[in-house]
Amino acid sequence: MKIREYLENNFENLKSDLSRLVKIPSVSGSPEGNYPFGKECGKALDEFLKIAEEKGFTIRNCGYYAGSADLYPEGEAELGILAHLDVVPVTEKNWSVPPFELTEREGRLYGRGAEDDKGPLLAAMWAMKAVKECGFKLKGNVRLIAGCSEETGLELDIEEYRKREKMPEKVFTPDAEFPIITTEKGMLRFTFGGGVNTDTIIGIKGGTVVNAVPSEVTALLKGEISLSHTEGITSYFEKGNTVIVCKGKSAHASTPRQGENAFTKLLAYLMSAGELTAGDRQLAEGLLKLFPDGETDAKALDLAVRDKSGETTCVFSIIDLQEGQLTAKADMRFPISLSKAKCSEKIKAAVERAGFELLNITGSEPHSVDENSEFVRALLAAYTGVTGKPAFCKAIGGGTYVHNIEGGVAFGMEIEGEDNHIHGDDEWVSTDALLTAAEIYAKAILGILGE
Ligand SMILES: [Zn+2]
Fold first, then answer.
1. What pTM does this model have?
2. Final residue of a domain: which of 334, 349, 364?
3. What is the pLDDT of residues 409-440, one digit of tens each?
4. Does one domain contain both 226 and 314?
5. Residue 442 CA, ligand 1 centroid: distance in Å
């Protein structure tokens, strides 16, 4: 039987597997008993292993950090497919369907995790099954690895998995988009601040997450100050003081040009409003020295670089000033020609020049895989073979699930230009895309390990 035909004949089974997984609200949380990421993630892993065992895979539970399903009972895996079972929380009132129930509507399957990443996990599992059931012989074993804590960004699941098990030499993750991502920029997050001597500025607060351009910030100024009207900035009096609310536009930290930073807009406004005393100006000037309004490429940090992986981006994303203490955070993505050490050194120097103290800095080096390796070429060929579309390697500013796995690439399964509402309301995957991805993964397995 042909792969496509097998997958079509079994598509109802794939959907029923997906509904079993979507039913479990597996938001990665804190440890509970034997479950390092909470009971629900544990349940999702148990269900995944059960589904795999029913299909004849050889299963393994890695302490509920992750689990795996091998196509053949014996032999180390040569190819690993890495997906995750945890999901992000939902705001149920914004969903038009129950988020933890798979709902089919007009060729789409709705449910949390349908696209990120339970659907892709099962597309890969059925691809493995199809290869075997259609009678193809493979030179090596294939292992599907399901982690339980991708969404936390800490990757404790993979870290633990690698301590206990051997990661296959070739790995792809169906946790991003097609065609293929071979280059991911490096990332740094830093916290800076210290004591400040402001006079008029009593407090500033804004930003909710470190990896987004902040869309709003509030400042509290001493006394009732009449300010000029500016678009996006409003002010009012409260208990004898002035509250200023400044609005910008949110965007992901890897694409800051799509947003408008509310902090730098506010600071530039305050500087031009002329109400500030020396101490206030020093603070605002210092912050603008690091993050000039409208700048997103870290030029002020002397780190503006552009190469084939893209340009440096830097976002001032969290600010908290109260009682003379400033704590601020920023997110930076840097191209492959820079290193963590070099960026850290420049950031430290710039922060100190601006009159602040660098309190903390963490991050990861860029990730890059040879675009011409046999492995990558086999994936590209599988993509084009099934879809008829041109395949190419991409570089991104975000980090995927394989960021810290040497040689790992991201391969699907979101289709470029399609918005599956990942992490949003009414997350969906189309039945077509699911079937096509399964076929691509099957062809990829054959391309890499077929005899
Ligand atoms: Zn994901």
1. 0.87
2. 364
3. 999 999 988 999 999 999 999 999 999 999 99
4. yes
5. 21
